[in-house]
Amino acid sequence: NMKKLLTVVMMLAIVSVCAAQGKNKTEKVKVDFYGIDFTDVNVIGANETSEKFIDAFEQINGLFFSEASKYNVAEFFNLEVASTDTETATDQLDSLQNVKFKNQKHSNVDINKIVAAYPESDINGFLIIAKELNKGANTGTFIAVMFNGQTKQILSQKEFTGKAHGFGLRNFWAGSFYDGMKRMK
């Protein structure tokens, strides 16, 4: 009887050690985070000028620094963020100077082209792509993209939508991003 009891205790110990090791395998992926890219954004139902949108988009990327604890991409997407660098996303805004952000109807976002513009890295890159900002529906739709930092191969992508809220152009659309992140968690 004592032998059987010892065997059962040993088996339980082995099972619990194996279970604990299994939990350690859910390690977070280490990434460089590049902010939100607005290159192919489809804005519907909004009247603001392109200058106002570009300014708001730049300010939204600034939130990853000024309100880092609220816009904590690492927490929401279960990542280990090695660095946050929104410079390329901000530089991409220059190409939008002559874009009219009114009721565009394109729906194809060229993820590979967007990712190609980002710097090479020894670790994976993580980028949020703004797909659609719809004022009539009060929603923002985004695509979270992880890519190989050297080959730029897309490793994963997940689309998410959030309800827009807040006062001012920046806060309204940043609110949709924040709400969408919360819904994904």
- Rounded to an integer, what's the Rg over CA atoms? 21 Å
- Write down the overall geometry: globular
What is the element string, with H for helices and E for strands? Answer: HEEHHEHHEEEH
The overall strand count is 6
Average pLDDT score: 85
Helix content: 25-40%
Report how far apart the termini are.
49 Å
Low-confidence runs (pLDDT<50, min 5 residues)? 5-25
Q: From the helix content, strand content and strand pairing, which structural class follows?
A: alpha/beta
Q: Quick one: biggest sheet?
A: 6 strands, mixed
The helix count comes to: 6
Q: What fraction strand?
A: 25-35%
Question: What is the topological layout?
Answer:
Blueprint: H1 2-24, E1 29-37, E2 42-44, H2 50-66, H3 73-76, E3 79-84, H4 87-92, H5 111-116, E4 124-134, E5 139-147, E6 154-163, H6 169-184
Parallel strand pairs: 1-3, 1-4, 2-4
Antiparallel strand pairs: 4-5, 5-6
Structural summary, described in words:
With 185 residues, the chain is of the alpha/beta class. It contains six helices and six strands. A hairpin with a 4-residue loop joins β4 (124-134) and β5 (139-147). The longest helix has 23 residues, at 2-24. The chain is globular.
Key terms:
alpha/beta; 6 helices; 6-stranded mixed sheet; 185 residues; globular
The gist of it:
The protein has 185 residues and is of the alpha/beta class. The chain has helices at residues 2-24, 50-66, 73-76, 87-92, 111-116, 169-184, and strands at residues 29-37, 42-44, 79-84, 124-134, 139-147, 154-163.
